[in-house]
Amino acid sequence: MKLLHVDSSVLGTNSVSRQLTAEVVAEWRKGHPNTTVEYLDLAVDAPNHFSADALGIKVGVQAEPTEAQRHENEVSERLVAQFLAADVIVVGAPLYNFTVPTQLKAWIDRLAQAGRTFKYTDKGPVGLATGKTLIVASTRGGIYSTSEGGQAMEHQESYLKVVFGFFGVTDVRFVRAEGVAMGDAPKAAAIGSARADIAAAIGKAANQDQATLAA
After folding, report:
1. DSSP string covering 110-170, please?
2. Nearest alpha-carbon partner for 7 in 81, 121, 104, 145
């Protein structure tokens, strides 16, 4: 089994999402000792924001791709191949300004490739990245999950569930710590709650039966 571990927080060792993704991966490996892990730190190695050069080769308009287009296409292909090879993806997703970090959004933009992670049909779009498990370490300074107003303001968990669902990833599990900026006691309680989520999230992968047969 292959696991892709993705962090996106810019806070380094002060990041709660990084702490939680590390714990998720450690616990997953305890229960699935044959798992191999690949790590991607988007705060250190983020792709450029999506641009005309990143799209250039995909649309096939120009007779010959430019050097910039070739480079951006290589980045996109490396990231989508890495994603597609993974059985389990663990993503650290802090809430920044009501949504995900721009580094994480830039990565997702590179994954969204027609013919690779989705396709359009006469009946609408179909996700191609099926059979994967996504575990999201969701961290928030405030509390958003317990009120309609808070739920309307967050475009983090809701966005991730929709976009990965569009890719065909329907097994999405959240490990949530919210209220981490509201004082020491609320932060400790939030991390404790997230650890309970970790225990619930560490189980059989969506494609574990198929992976076992293939092995």
Report:
1. HH--BTTTEEEETTEEEE---S-EEEEEEEESS--TTSHHHHHH-BSHHHHHHHHHHTT--
2. 104
- The label of the residue with tokens 């696991």 reads 3
Amino acid symbol at 177: A
Please write the tens of the pLDDT for every residue from 35-91: 999 999 999 999 999 998 888 777 665 678 889 989 999 999 999 999 999 999 999
Handedness of CA 33, 27, 173, 43 (dihedral sign): negative
Q: Cα–Cα distance between 26 and 198 in angstroms, integer?
A: 10
The encoded tokens of residue 90 equal 């663990």
**Alpha carbon distance 94, 9 (integer Å):** 6
Residue (of 171, 172, 167) closest to 156 by Cα position: 172
Residue 148 amino acid letter: E
pTM over the 0.85 mark? yes
